[in-house]
Amino acid sequence: MSFIADKQTLDDLSLLGKYNPNSVFSLFNKVKTRGAEKLLDAMFQQPLTDAGKINSRSAIFRYFSDNPVAFPFDDAMLDRMEAYVDGAGESSLMLSFFQVTRKKLAEVLLRGEEFQLEMTGINSTLQVIKTAEGLLKQLEKEGRDKNTPWEKWAGIVRHIVQDPRLKERSANQLSFFQVVKLHELLTGQFRGQLIQLLHLTYEIDLYIAVAGVARERGFCYATAFPKSDNLLSAKGVRHPGLDKAVPNSLSFNGKSNVLFLTGANMAGKSTLMKSTGILVYLAHMGFPVAATELQFSVLDGIYSSVNVPDDINKGYSHFYAEVLRVKKVAEEVADGKSLFIIFDELFKGTNVKDAYDATLAVTEAFTDFTDCFFIISTHIFEAGHALDKMEDQIQFRFLPTVMKDNVPQYTYQLEKGITTDRQGMIIIENEGILDML
């Protein structure tokens, strides 16, 4: 079963988006090759739901973080090699002779470019092999070619470079018939291994890049447990895109599965919730996370309700869109799925009385679904006081506001309890809006 995260959630958390410089994808997209970028996109699109696979991938990233190495390959050269090996198809010596002869004749008689493209492909492939051989020697010298994530890559490179037929390093120095033989060797006998080498090289590019981001930004590597363990314990959680984010710690389990969050506007509620959602998503990818420690049970997915838009075409008001979002989540949790749920300012699109009643009823109902974890934020702190009787099941936390010279300041540090802070009018007055009017 694949990990669940719908478009609303992906947008709320700014997870995807190659061309969005503020997306989590862009944060990790420091790869050198297009092949690695495709792999990165695939991993973002398909988080894992198996604890063993998550921990295995995480261990690889951790290895490259602890054992950094520069990626020595040229992207353009790898592209040309990939186009050459993929485009040629499997080849025999006779077929290679006819293919190369046709391209050579077209060059001589029609000034065609196919033969030169052929030579470029061969030379690029030989250069990639030479670069791989140099890296392999470095790994062998450092003892990193065996019993490490390099082992499979190193085995393929070793098998290729040890073949005496590949001792030539430039097809430009060869006769026509030597070029034919080399073409048959690369696109026939070694084609499968070269394709595999390319794929593993792209993977290594990805591992090096992601590990580099983790090392630079001080991310940690999570430990995944089976779903049945039903826990999430995170220390030092922060938003991965912020350089000076204030860390917070959170924990959930079957006996305490709802976090009821209060705080004034600008106190940091949305950022904390997004940070936690991103943490959960990246952890299921096996990626490093913006925290100092994370242990979690595998979940089936994540749903968020942060920026729920109205829908003019369907005639949905903002409030009705919120209701439909809650209904969707209710259907999923009632179906027995283990989910991480984020509701930021639940039912903010309606009047205070209805919002109070709905927040109270929905929050109380969610406590029954102990295989799911919820963060619910609200300005309606009265609803929190009404839920006091469920303190064992519900964690009450708030982000405080400190007044200094009638100016609100924010610690962004979670504290236990429910806040009654409301500084909306103070902010409006401080901005001089009433004086303008």
Automatic annotation (TrEMBL):
MF terms in GO: ATP binding; ATP-dependent DNA damage sensor activity; mismatched DNA binding
Protein name, entry field: MutS domain V
Protein's UniProt keywords contain Nucleotide-binding: yes
Matching Gene3D superfamilies: 1.10.1420.10, P-loop containing nucleotide triphosphate hydrolases (3.40.50.300)
Keywords assigned by UniProt, alphabetized: ATP-binding, DNA-binding, Nucleotide-binding
Pfam family, one: MutS_V
Organism: Chitinophaga terrae
SMART domains cross-referenced by the UniProt entry: MUTSac
Domain DNA mismatch repair proteins mutS family: 256-435
Any one GO biological process: mismatch repair
Source species taxonomy: Bacteria, Pseudomonadati, Bacteroidota, Chitinophagia, Chitinophagales
